[in-house]
Amino acid sequence: MIDPGVSTRIPLEEYAALLGEGEIEELRALARPLRGRSIEMINSTAVGGGVAEILTRLLPLADELELDVKWHVMTGGEDFFEVTKSFHNALHGAPYPATAQDFEVYLAYNEGNASRLLLDSEFVVIHDPQPAALIEARKNNHNYWAWRCHIDLSRPNESVWNFLAPFVAKYDGAMFSSPAFARRLPIPQYLFYPAIDPLSDKNCELSSNFIEGVLARYKIDPQRTILTQISRFDRLKDPVGVIRAYRIVKRYFDCQLVLAGGGAPDDPEGAVVLKEVLREAESDSDIKVLDLPAFAPLEVNALQRASTIVIQKSLREGFGLTVSEALWKKKPVVASAVGGIPSQVIHKQTGLLAHSIEGTAYQIRFLLSHPDIAAKLGEAGHQHVKENFLITQKLKRYLTLFLAARKGK
Amino acid sequence: MDRATTPFEFNAVSYLTRIGNQSAETIAELLQGLEECSDASIFHHTFQTLGAHHFLTENFSNDFAQWAMADANRNDLAEQLASLDIRDYLSIAALRHDLCRIVGDFCATSPALAGRSALERFYFCEGVEVTVPVGLQATTLDEFRHGIERLSHAGFYFHFISSRLRLQLQTNDFSYWLANSLDLKTLADSVNRIDIYTNTLEGTRARMLRLIDRERRKS
Question: What is the pLDDT of residues B60-85, one digit of tens each?
């Protein structure tokens, strides 16, 4: 069992200072009928990636509301994570000739984990495809099982989805980050946004001294325009496309590009993509490719706060929490209209959307030419995140799901 | 009347968004969806979305108008859809009727445009509402002010906007209680007239508190 630890525990009162006392009282009121109820969260990695990050922040808050929440990480060998990474890409639409052996590896690890885990909590929430088959180990029909899918299932590779769908259909409900990701399933499907923690190291206020120190460490000039994309080195985040968009912008504006990301234990492809990015960037000293450790929240925070514009030029995206992180810091964002990004970037209201390398470059040029509009978008984006994408809202959605499940809604 | 016999009970409210099976790629399909979708879906895309995006006080009214503008690229249709004021409606059926009339007129006069694919599909969703008492009651104007001040955005919206559908009256929970339990009809009317389309929820709350304070000074 993972214990997020004392270091991540922030009293709810500190959120009240930021969001208002009423928001916290509402959380307490919604949690009251669920006090002492057991909840189990299961995913495939304890560090790196958005899911682990959310759970790390969410669980201490749920604990403070006196919910009995446990977090388990499924175990697996390299062969399992190779298969599930391929599943992940395939479910995002990449071609993948899945073999019977792949499915056997997947099922064997799920069975192994099922025998290790109790899976008897009143509410069991399974995150993403890796542990989806744990539903086969459901011991009785009295508890509520929900599948939380964080990836874009709008155009999945059929062979992989057809394999997973029968497991998903056995859940009581499924949650997706966008309505476009929902599939035709015989169970209720809900919209669940991921969330950021405004008080975590990644999003809290930082001193200008600290930010300057980080920029100096990575040889980034604070006096010049800084364009930044924060994401894992993953082809679906299109870091090479970002470099090409930057090169178009560079014809018109003096600027630097920061591509910063870290790896995750369940992503064996990262090192390969990083090499591709370094190859694309090598002749330009204004491109800073930063291979950050898996857990470098203060550095990410500082880089986002120092940015003139934040980019998220993903080709496919589950949600793209880095967008909310940037908006929370009132940064103007230019992002691809894929996955959950349009939920965060309402075009011309909270940021600008693009559909190509050229479109990305054009929107960046537009914002660099109109800093007043950029500032207004950043301000509206901050409000949008405050209302919809903070960890307190996430907790509220879970409470609502569990309350609705108890009432049979 | 200084003290009400029936207290005002403040509620906490939360909505779960249930994703429906209907979606629309064209304006003609949007019309079909509007005709067939559930009442909960109409509620979600009009009442609920205005609460969720209250801070966008320019060019945002409901999801149908936003989709017509941003995805179907029809500003003319978007303007008409955005002009609907949800406070005018006491039933979802009446609101659905007007939405269908506007989109139906567009389809009748511009059938070719109505059949064009939008950039992104419109997905019909529903709101699943859960309410619980927040544990705060008011029997005097002072207690009422205290409750208004402490209420969450969602709770404020629940009592001030979506209450119209529950009450089936051109008023809201706050005004209804002020008029009927504290006999403060002028204050109730002033509160009911605050424009939620051009104010954020915080702005609306601040205006309401100012109105209450003015009333308190009178006594």
Answer: 679 999 899 888 999 999 999 999 98
HSE-CB of A41 using CA atoms within 13 angstroms: 25
Helix (H), strand (E) at residue A239: helix A239-250
Which of A168-172, A343-347, B56-60 is predicted with the least confidence, judged by mean pLDDT? B56-60
pTM, to two decimals: 0.87
Structure confidence at residue B6 as a pLDDT band (50, 70, 90):
very high
Contact criterion met (CB < 8 Å) for B21 and A184: yes
- Give the residue from chain B lying closest to A345, CA to CA: B70
pLDDT, mean of residues B17-43: 95
Inter-chain CB proximity A26 and B152 less than 8 Å: yes
Q: Which of B57, B152, B157, B158 to mutate to test the interface with A (most CBs of A within 10 A)?
A: B152
CA dihedral A91→A95→A99→A100, nearest 10 degrees, is 30
What is the C-alpha to C-alpha distance for residues B92 and A4, in angstroms, rounded to an integer? 45
* Architecture field, domain A208-388: 3-Layer(aba) Sandwich (3.40)
Domain boundaries along the sequence of chain B: 14-126, 137-218
Domain map (residue ranges) of chain A = 6-195+390-406, 208-388
Residues paired with residue A178 on neighbouring β-strands, in sequence order: none
Give the CATH number of domain A6-195+390-406: 3.40.50.2000
Interchain CB distance below 8 Å, B132 and A23: no
Q: Closest approach of chain B CAs to the CA of A171, in angstroms?
A: 15
| pLDDT tens digits for range A275-310 | 999 999 988 999 999 998 877 899 999 999 999 999
C-beta separation of A5 from A52 below 8 A? no
